[in-house]
Structures are given as C-alpha cells and as structure tokens.
Amino acid sequence: MPELPEVETLRNALLPLVRNQTLAELKFLRADLRFPIPRKQLKKEMTQSVVTDITRTGKYLLLHNDKGAMLWHLGMSGRVVQRPSMKAEEKHTHAIFHFAPETYLHFIDPRRFGCILWVPKDAGHPLLDHLGPDPFSDEATPELFKERARTCKGPIKGFLMNATRIAGIGNIYACEALFEAGIHPKKPANKLSKPQWEKLLIEVRHVLRKSINAGGTTLRDFFNTDGNPGYFALDLSVYGKEGEPCPRCGNPIARSVHTARSTFFCKTCQKR
User: What topology is assigned to 142-265 in CATH?
Assistant: First the structure.
C-alpha cells in the first residue's frame, strides 16, 4: 500500500510536470473507484485551468487551481505513471489526464480502493476534515501527541497508524520508527514519557524523510511516475525481517500479528 513517503515522492515527481501547466483534457474509463468519480464536475472545474500547486495532506494529493482542488488517493494499489498519449496501455487504467503541451498521466488502480474527487476552494472535505496533523507540520509536537494519548490505553503502534491522531503513518514506517526510538510497539500510548515522545517524533520524521529521499519502497504496488520502483525497502531495519539478526544487538527480529497486521520488532532493543 502506498504510504506517506510514496505519496510525497509522487508529488515531487509530478511538480515539474504539472505545476503551472494547463489541464487540457480529462478522460475517465469508469464511473467509480472507492467512491463515485464526480466526472462532470471535475471536467467542468479542472479542464482548461492551470494547476497552481500540488500539496499533500497525509496520504492524499491535492492538485489545486483557482476554484479548488482535485483530490487523489492511491488506495491499496494505485499508481500514477507518465505515458505518451491518451490511449490506455494497461488493463486497470481508470483515468487519464493531459497537461499541455504533451504530458499524459495515467491513474492505474487494480484493486480500485483509490479515489479521484473534487474539493471546492475554502471548503472542507469528509476525507480530510478529521485527519490529525501531518508528521512534518509545525502542529505535530511531542506535547500535542502526549496530550492526545493521555486517555489512550491501546498500543503505541495503533496510535501512530490512526490517521485521526497523526496523518499518513502506515505499518512499515510505524515499525521502523518505533525500532529506531527503542519503544515496544505494544507499549500503551498513554505510558510514553515526554522524552519518549520527543525521540519518537524525531525518528518518525527521520524514517519518513529517509524514505522520501530514496524514492519510496519496492513493496508490492508503488512505482514512480517513470514506472520505476523506489528503493528504500533495501534499507529497512526490521519490517519484513522476521528471524533475521537485529542490526543493533544481533538477536532475531520478532513478528506479532494484531488486527490482521504484522508488527516487526526486536525484543531486546524494544523492551516492553
């Protein structure tokens, strides 16, 4: 599943192609993905308008013009690739965008859990209104998260993956940040001290930034706009490495399963 670094990598790749360019043509090959696509509205509001910027909120991309923004989410298997024309080349191509003069972006999503929606200018949206702060925002502080976790007796890993508390941290990066911070993934969120929150936020940002700089992960479905996979997965410390030696202490990496998600950690370095 594309996570925050993959979405930010995509944003960085799209900026030189799309920002300050006119969206000349939109083509939709189906009526819905996770939600119905407001095809008529998007064509009315976006066609022949200039995309002034692309921003990211959590795992959502927003392509802005003077009327609002087109919202993209990649879901479980979505990707956006550059192609030479408006002709669909892959089976699961669901939308095609032509930016003048000759940039063609194809939205591909085999599982169809992604979405393409419209957000009017200066208006909220149900998918965005209840998101917690982005990890890189000024609002994201140790003090804020300690306060939000005050009544949370659940595991800290679950807290990190709850988008209403902090936006955009998925399973891979939650495991990696907790390892780097030396915090057991099942430690109750309300038991973390302020120094632990300070360390954890530092490591969350470090792990995400490291991934963004490397171009995403090679796991499953994410590809850059040129069709090439990212490479950060080569540098993961614990995720997907059950039984392999811990890079710090040499003891085997453990795996547990909670709510159908695998958690990877070191029992020695991350004492509960």
Answer: Helicase, Ruva Protein; domain 3 (1.10.8)
